[in-house]
């Protein structure tokens, strides 16, 4: 039996400073500007894990860096 983690638990595994915003049925994960430029590998790893779990994340990018992820 595999445990399924909530989106908040997955985000907490990476950095506690990420915010999960809900707008209706859509959910968006926002990242602080320092993480966008300094911790892009972690953000990509988070996107990859969400994708592997079948959540179909959509990355919003700026200058080739992920600035937010929508679910």
Provide a descriptive summary of the structure in words:
Helix content is 38%, strand content 30%. It is of the alpha+beta class and 71 residues long. It has one domain. A four-stranded antiparallel beta sheet has the order 1-2-4-3. Strand 3 (58-62) and strand 4 (65-70) form a beta hairpin.
From the structure above, extract its key features:
3 helices, 71 residues, alpha+beta, four-stranded antiparallel beta sheet
What is the topological layout?
Blueprint: H1 7-14, E1 19-23, E2 26-30, H2 33-38, H3 40-52, E3 58-62, E4 65-70
Antiparallel strand pairs: 1-2, 2-4, 3-4
Helix pairs in contact: 1-3
User: For the largest beta sheet, what order do the strands appear in spatially?
Assistant: 1-2-4-3
Radius of gyration: 12 Å
Please provide the count of β strands. Answer: 4
Number of helices: 3
The H-and-E topology, N to C, reads as HEEHHEE
Instruction: Characterize the overall form.
Output: globular
**Helical residue percent?**
25-40%
Residue windows where pLDDT falls under 50 for at least 5 positions: none
* Cα separation of the termini: 25 Å
How many individual domains?
1
The major pleated sheet works out as:
4 strands, antiparallel
Mean pLDDT: 83
Determine the oligomeric state from the structure.
single chain
Tell me the fraction of residues in β-strands, as a range. Answer: 25-35%
